[in-house]
From TrEMBL:
The lineage of its organism: Bacteria, Pseudomonadati, Bacteroidota, Bacteroidia, Bacteroidales. Keywords: 4Fe-4S, Iron, Iron-sulfur, Metal-binding, Oxidoreductase, S-adenosyl-L-methionine. The gene is nrdG. SUPFAM superfamilies: Radical SAM enzymes. Activation of anaerobic ribonucleoside-triphosphate reductase under anaerobic conditions by generation of an organic free radical, using S-adenosylmethionine and reduced flavodoxin as cosubstrates to produce 5'-deoxy-adenosine. One of its GO terms (molecular function) is metal ion binding. Pfam families: Fer4_12. This is Anaerobic ribonucleoside-triphosphate reductase-activating protein. It is an enzyme of class 1 (oxidoreductase). Belongs to the organic radical-activating enzymes family. InterPro entries: Aldolase_TIM, NrdG, Organic_radical-activating, rSAM, rSAM_sf. Its EC number is 1.97.1.-. Its cofactor is [4Fe-4S] cluster.
Length: 166
């Protein structure tokens, strides 16, 4: 599998406005154990479908400009330790916001991976459910998915249906 300092990367998209507020650099990781029906990224379910890179290298790529960061997949928490290390590095060395998408719910993440909540600003949670998909949903694929503003592990606010200023 992957070490704490290596990530399998499906792709990095620079200067995109589709993965969160404003222009962002989006990191798409490979590997996903959830396998949502009608997933848009099935080609990345196998972790080895991506290119192995060090966390330092990914950090450099994501921070080659002033844009904030989005982390999607695949399932980012499948590579939890290196994703956590990357988020820590971003927060310790920049003032960028981090959005993270996970097929797991906030409740599950709080139980299994609470530390990540100290290093992200927004969490989009829940599996993609095709029968709950709507064409104009902002930043999520289906209506069961929620958007959370994260201040820390104890201060998390549901902003799914609200307009907000980031």
């Amino acid at each position: 599998m992957v070490s704490n300092n290596e990530l399998y990367i499906a792709r990095i998209v620079y200067s995109t406005s589709t993965d969160g507020v404003g222009l962002r650099n989006s990191l798409y990781v490979s590997g996903c154990p959830i396998h949502c029906a009608e997933c848009h990224n099935k080609q990345w379910w196998d972790i080895e479908s991506g290119e192995k890179q060090t966390v330092d290298s990914v950090f450099s790529h994501l921070n080659s400009d002033q844009f904030d960061i989005s982390i999607l997949g695949g399932e980012p928490l499948m590579q939890y330790e290196p994703i956590l290390n990357l988020c820590k590095m971003i927060k310790e060395n920049t003032d960028k916001t981090i959005w993270l998408w996970s097929g797991y719910t906030l409740e599950w993440i709080k139980l299994h991976y609470p530390e990540i909540l100290s290093y992200i600003d927004v969490l989009v949670d829940g599996p993609f459910v095709s029968k709950l998909s709507l064409p104009n949903l902002q930043w999520r694929g289906s209506t069961n998915q929620r958007i959370w503003k994260v201040k820390n592990v104890n201060e998390i606010f549901d902003i799914t249906e609200k307009l907000f200023d980031m």
